Batch of 2 targets.
Target 1
Amino acid sequence: MLSDLSVPGRPGGRPAGPLPDRPRVLRSRRVVLPDGERAAAVHVADGRITAITAPADVPAGVEITDLGEFALLPGVVDSHVHVNEPGRTEWEGFATATRAAAAGGVTTIIDMPLNAIPPTTSLAALEAKRAVAAGQIAVDVGFWGGIIGADARGLDDLAALHDAGVFGFKAFLAPSGVEEFPHVSLDVLAAASRHTARMGALTVVHAESPAVLEAAPPVLGRVFASWLASRPPAAEQEAVAGLVALSAATGARLHVLHLSAVEALDDVVAARDEGLPFSAETCPHYLTFTAEEVPDGATVFKCAPPIRGRSNLDRLWDALGEGLFAGVVSDHSPSTPEVKQIDTGDFAAAWGGIASVQIGLPAVWTQARARGYSLADVVGWMCAGPAELAGLRGKGRLEVGADADLVVFDPDASFLVRPAMLRHRHPLTPYAGRSLDGVVLATYLRGVRADGDRPPRGRLLERR
Ligand SMILES: [Zn+2]
């Protein structure tokens, strides 16, 4: 059944009346706490969670918002978002990206160091990004720095960015798609990683082997199968194997971004078994779509690494269920319809990136519930996991002292994804027209309602 997004009151233990902008106590039969889901009351003051009590344990006279069977979750932490401002603001900007985030239950994003111009590879560039973001962000925003070299100047830049509070550093092993953010060899990454290891910083990597990609067959216009064949699983497998060796050699904390090919998982498992500081993430689109269903010319599905076959999807879910992934994050990477080649359907020319920051939570929940997973599992993958990866304290968990970043979620309602409801700059997404389970009814940032057109109250975050 399709839910009415504007009226939260429905029969069956649902609250009557609108949800408040500044709740004092939120009570639900389904509060998703770090140790699982149960009935509880979450008390909020001054933007923080001050107590979590039994439902009836609320002082007399304190206003209670009773959510009934609507679930109360921590805000989603999306550590993989491309905002593109300044420089490619026509693709996506801070105002639109964070509005979309808030609408989708995301209360913290960490912005990737590309595709803005300048890329976040120097202190001056980070300051430029912070200056343009300030005052227009509806959720909290942190930043990754970028690794594009390991000469003396490059290493100085990494140190300056680290001191300024970036959450870690991103590198590409294969071409990034934009010329101002060149990829690096494993040797250069090793030199940079020795440096970041000394700082205790996390390095996150786009892991596809350029040698494997160069040897793969070319992309043939509108043919999706040719895009898939041009990014074979071996490219991910070889790159991940190289990164595991690099982590062993340097002691650097390495994290594989947007893992798609299950063939690369064996090396992730081996790294974990060796006790290396090594992790990986995957994304909602790899857990939702299959190559078999992507029509030719549908460049809205283009991303790298690509969406793979049905059996790959099932095995990714198995790995997620086994705890092999540190998180599930959107890799929200929009562009204009022209750059995305919507009209031509040319997979070779189209920008590779999927816009989904607003859709990730229901997309993952839709698949998760069908496979027998719980809301607590989803919160672990999308809230606690990414917060822990980035070292974000006070985020991603409902616990006393944490920021009151809260999501009121109707897990039993479903909705049709319509472009008109999408708040990011260009309403292009492969989820359009799909029915998803789970409706975000309200998003609170530090105790205050943040979704819709409310004044932007997001803060710029620094690693502490
Ligand atoms: Zn990305």
Target 2
Amino acid sequence: MDKVVVITGASGGIGAELALQLGAKGAKLVLSARRKPELEAVAARAGSESLVVVADATVRGDMEKLRDAALQRFGRIDVWVNNAGRGITRSVAELTDEDIDVMMRDNVKSALYGIQAVLPHFKSRNAGQIVNISSGLARLPLAAFRSAYSAAKHALNALSACLRLELKQSHPGITVTVVMPGVVATEFGINALGGGPDSRTLPGAQSVEDATKAIVDVIESPRAEAYTNPATKADVERYYRDVEAFETEVAARFRR
Ligand SMILES: NC(=O)c1ccc[n+]([C@@H]2O[C@H](COP(=O)([O-])OP(=O)(O)OC[C@H]3O[C@@H](n4cnc5c(N)ncnc54)[C@H](OP(=O)(O)O)[C@@H]3O)[C@@H](O)[C@H]2O)c1
């Protein structure tokens, strides 16, 4: 694959696996997160031409520096993956102001800063792909305890769709893609604000290798949306057909 790909949150989980799978295909990688040793270990395993940039996705200036470092090293960016994100374990009744702010910062502003950093470069070429890693919870009320995370990912989907529509008119060469994983066996659960269940032990968790293949696929064949697990897409279709019936079924499934 002859593409320069920037990945945020590449030090672990889905972002690290994406680096490995794209590296195996020969992509040039720009790997970013806050933990340098972990990033360097991923870069070494990716076995491809790569650049490591320590950056916090929730700091706008860091995303601008990430873009500049990528352009300086490779001369262009073809794909920018906004993958950094964080969950929460808190019911709506218990949410604090800070919970909401952290979820919006870590899941919406982080991606927005990435989008706004790379967009001028993509517009100047009328080419490029933005991939936002969202969640099945951006469409489905399957996990009430993820509350503000689910809301933030809904917001990310909405911003992505607005951007896609805008660019269709002005810069049709740029693709905006939303990928919606189901539960994936990473450290996401234990990294959630407030702790909570380990995603690796949840029933139906998809392996990180399988989930990541869907992201590689949308980079090889750019399109608007993808689910990493076909069961999520089927659930979304059922949900929009009959919201009340779906919620009743989910509530019964999880009733204690
Ligand atoms: N696993 C799931 O079940 C699941 C399901 C649906 C959607 N997703 C989404 O998939 C994406 C990746 O999740 P994951 O499962 O791989 O989670 P993870 O195992 O917790 O990994 C998160 C990655 O993001 C980085 N990160 C977190 N905050 C950051 C920040 N402020 N700036 C830069 N990097 C940051 C972390 O690295 P550092 O700590 O080194 O910065 C780490 O590399 C997230 O957007 C998540 O919402 C996950």
